[in-house]
Amino acid sequence: MADYTKEIEKRRTFAIISHPDAGKTTLTEKFLLYGGAINLAGSVKGKATARHAVSDWMEIEKERGISVTSSVLQFNYDGYCINILDTPGHQDFSEDTYRTLMAADSAVMVIDGSKGVEAQTRKLFKVCVMRHIPIFTFINKMDRDANDTFDLLDEIEKELGIATCPINWPIGSGKSFKGVYDRDTKKVLTFSDTMKGTREGTEEEVAVDDPHLSDILDPGQKDQLLEEIELLDGASAEFDMEKVSRGELSPVFFGSALTNFGVETFLRHFLQMTTSPLPRRADMGIVDPMKEPFSAFVFKIQANMNKAHRDRIAFMRICSGKFEASEEVCHVQGDRKMRLSQPQQMMAQDRHVVEEAYAGDIIGVFDPGIFSIGDTVCSPGKRFAFEGIPTFAPEHFARVRQVDTMKRKQFIKGINQIAQEGAIQIFQEFNTGMEEIIVGVVGVLQFDVLKYRLENEYKVDIRLETLPYEHIRWIENKEEIDLAKLVGTSDMKKVRDLKGNPLLLFVNAWSVGMTLDRNENLKLSEFGKN
Ligand code: G4P
């Protein structure tokens, strides 16, 4: 075995997903605090970064440096080397958010206990399910009045279609939140407000049959707890590590990230249950992270701040072996050997150049415009290509028109380059080709980004005419379908992507169903293959 297997074994690479405001940033800060990566919580990223105005693309650009550094965080805790992938939320929710999940080996889903499953969680969750990666649930804000615990679990099971297994169980919520009961040790960890940040708390561990527990709990809470434990032991799914690994069962934890309660317990359990870097599928078969030499794939490309040079940073997830900056690698899709330029890694807030990194790690490299999303780089000795990253369904569409038709060439170049970075998807009318371009985006902010970047980087003014479509479907069995004979609904529109693949746009979900009903053989997919 290679000498780097120990390094790989201790790596844990996961993404945190949540609906905005559920507490993802707060939880991440607390993880870093336990890892000793930061001294005081509250310094992961400025609130202003997360809450910029929709149209303020200038501001976004200024903040780019920050968003680059905060997109991956690495820290050590308890012998593990942890890589947290941030999934951009809020207004800059985009395909990148989805793609980040392609680089993770597991996901932590943060849910606000008073809100339950929210829209954004649902969308991101679908991608995790598609990849069959383990999903861990942290139900946050228990120091505020929360929904009934059984109802919360029920909602997760019904809405997301995954079984749940509570590892601990909350006692009360809001003002009467007293702590959590650990189902394994049968002890109650009592809640004490740690004043929003410092690590020291006066948590106590009390056995559930210890008479002292009654002094801590409100009247009636103990009986309720015992009743709930009994119900739970009878009704809930049993913990099954196999099912967790396949993403079929989500271990659930309760806590309050703001007051630090339940965070370390969660982190400890999570690290034990989650996996070291997973094998990945490539054209030559399954790539074992420990056995194969260096390989990685590009999951995100970020345009750089410097307008003079269209520099970009390509983010790569290392999938096997050890990366050494001094060694040549092979860019498979570009069919060339190269040295990765200025490889960087993020440690809490700092970005630094790395000499070496291991499977599970994420590195950002300078990209002079050669990489595309999904590309493979690997050790030249053994060439293979990883399976492409799927294209995720945009939900907003607009027709793009140039204001000055003389600048056709720049326009086509600009829009193609921005599409190559994966910020937008472009489609053509089914019959007319590039005269009419339709742009699809996952988050509406990307429209502003497109307009701003075309104006500033390519000197092309555009007009965007919003279209009413919200659903796009790839035709899975396009060889078997005669598109001219397809019986759609009146609102359906046929388009094609740049590779000529046919796609269908619909205004509502009903039309999607109707079209499927009317065309027996038609197979549609929400994910496109690259
Ligand atoms: P996000 O990244 O998922 O969008 O959420 P973030 O951590 O920014 O948290 C959103 C708000 O919820 C913040 O309040 C944060 O302090 C609060 N919060 C997070 N975890 C808990 C918790 O366990 N209990 C309670 N009571 N609140 C929590 P804010 O007022 O928007 O910001 P701030 O001014 O407090 O920083």
Features:
530 residues; 8-stranded antiparallel β-sheet; 14 helices; binds guanosine-5',3'-tetraphosphate; RF3_dom_3_sf; GTP-binding; Peptide chain release factor 3; cytoplasm
Task: Kindly report the spatial arrangement of strands forming the biggest sheet.
Answer: 28-25-27-26-30-31-29-32
Strand percent estimate = 25-35%
The helix content is: 25-40%
Class based on secondary structure composition and strand pairing = alpha+beta
Distance between the termini: 34 Å
Number of helices: 14
What does this structure look like?
This protein is an alpha+beta fold. The chain contains 14 helices and 33 strands. It has an 8-stranded antiparallel β-sheet. A 7-stranded mixed β-sheet has the order 2-3-1-4-5-11-6, sandwiched between helices. Strand 12 (about 280) and strand 13 (about 285) form a beta hairpin. Helix 5 (about 95-100) packs parallel to helix 6 (about 120-130) and helix 12 packs across helix 13. It starts with a helix and ends with a strand. The model is unreliable at about 40-70 (pLDDT under 50). It binds guanosine-5',3'-tetraphosphate.
List the helices and strands and how they pair.
Elements: H1 5-9, E1 11-18, H2 24-34, H3 47-50, H4 57-69, E2 72-77, E3 80-86, H5 95-102, E4 106-112, H6 119-131, E5 135-140, H7 149-160, E6 163-166, E7 168-171, E8 179-182, E9 187-190, E10 205-207, H8 212-216, H9 221-235, H10 241-245, E11 249-254, H11 263-273, E12 280-282, E13 285-287, E14 295-303, E15 312-320, E16 322-324, E17 329-331, E18 336-338, E19 344-347, E20 350-353, E21 356-358, E22 362-367, E23 376-378, E24 391-392, E25 396-402, H12 408-420, E26 425-429, E27 433-441, H13 445-458, E28 462-467, E29 471-475, E30 493-497, E31 502-506, H14 509-518, E32 524-525, E33 527-528
Parallel strand pairs: 1-3, 1-4, 4-5, 5-11, 6-11
Antiparallel strand pairs: 2-3, 7-8, 8-9, 9-10, 12-13, 14-15, 14-23, 15-22, 16-21, 17-18, 17-23, 19-20, 24-33, 25-27, 25-28, 26-27, 26-30, 29-31, 29-32, 30-31
Bound molecules: guanosine-5',3'-tetraphosphate.
